[in-house]
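Course assignment 3, question 2. Fill in each field.
Student: A.L.
Task: Predict the tertiary structure for the chain below.
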Amino acid sequence: MPDDSMRIEVAGENALIVYLGHALSPVMADRVRRLDQQLRERLADQLIDTVPSYASVLIIYRPDRIRMEALREHLEEFGRATSAPIAKEGGSLVTLPVWYGPESGPDLVELADSNGLSVDEVVQRHHTREYRVYAIGFAPGFAYLGEVDEVIARPRLTTPRQQVPTGSVGIADRQTAVYPAESPGGWNLIGRCPVRMFDPLAAAPMPVGVGDRIQFEPISRSEYLELGGAP
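Answer field:
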């Protein structure tokens, strides 16, 4: 029998979605990562794609190579395996440099003032915390990271910006993220990251994946530019 917390539903003509639970947590992020890894390692030639999210994985399969019933059986097996406790934290630890400041983060001062903090306190609380990649969406390479210290949490902007610069680091409620490309957006911007979050031509198009652990590291403006950050 499948794990009681797991639910499998039809999501299309050749797609299933597996819900592993509801809680957004590091433990859930690990379960999602481990299930996605099992699918990619053991059924790679029978799948078109997998799309991991906060507490689910969407599986798009090749109906000429695997039947839905057989895929369900594999998912139940993998689900039992991923529900077992792990000995240590999974996912890679990725360090992302950030140039914090009013020049790179136009909402930093207002966010600090509204939360009764200094700018330095906001930066300190943001970069000393380790985050989990809970999902990737909105745009390729846009990783939803959680959770920020509740003291620096802030709702999305009432009026989103038409253009947010590439590499902008933002906060929305208790999540934080790096914009992989210039786009509209309503997150509170507090800095800029020079790391390219999505490169379709690279062997690994994204430097992070669901379940990875993220640590931000403060850098200066000159270091940001030296590392290839956009002016």
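Instructor remarks: The chain has a mean pLDDT of 91. The chain is about 25% helix and 30% strand.
Grade: pending
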